[in-house]
Amino acid sequence: MPIIRFHLTVLVSLAFAVVGLNAAVLQGGRFTQISRDVRIAEPAGSPKRVAVNAEVRSGVIRSGVESRAEITFADQSVVRLGDKTEVSIDSQSRGIELKSGAVLTQVPAGVGSTTLKARDIVATATGTTLIVEYSPDQYAKFISAEGTSRLCLKRSGWSSDCVLLRSGQMIIVGPGAKMLPEAVDVDLGRFIETCHFITQFHPLPDQQRVVKAVAAQGGQKSHGAFADTNLVILGRGTLVSKRDAAGAPSPSKQPPGKVSPTPAPPHP
Fold first, then answer.
1. Tell me: the pLDDT tens digits for 125-155?
2. pTM of the predicted model as reported, rounded to 2 decimal places
3. Domain that holds residue 234
4. Is residue 214 part of a domain?
């Protein structure tokens, strides 16, 4: 069920800092799961179809219709691609850029500064499990399944605008935004139960981090910090639907960001 927080939380940015001065490069990357059509184009190379256990350094990876993939690196960093997704990986800088589609990343704490970019928004990925969905010229959606990420919107001619995205929170950013909206809370338990990045893959290297985040939010809910709503986002996109008494969704004109909808998973 969707949830809405009853109380406000003051965010203190001084309590959060992720610095990776000597970040180790992403090494030993291999495709650990592939479904259907997945291709990689290394720098100065042409796209080629890949199979499980194929090596990944730097390059652009694309998944086709109803296709998906998982890449696991030596330090147990993971990148999962949904269908119709294009992502660029720079192993040297530990930078991941989502050009379109949807990805999940899980990066252990202490392995060096890792970033996940969609359009002009850059998120710190170290010590978090993030799900990001991006449709060019339409929206970018960031969800933290666990951990705290710092998101910064960087536009030419404008100063950066940064916010913290905590476990169980979501941000949706429209095209041309000059500031990041406030994060809203989602029902993390329901999200994880229905998210294709979880249900259609084997367990994450550190699945327990996600399990603990779900339990922590459940504890907060039982103590009255959250209340159920009837608002959901079904699949990819930003359309908020309202469930009726029978549980069937119907379109709602309620804009995202004003409430805390529970998004269903991005498609694989």
1. 999 999 999 999 899 999 999 999 999 998 7
2. 0.79
3. 3-10+20-263
4. yes
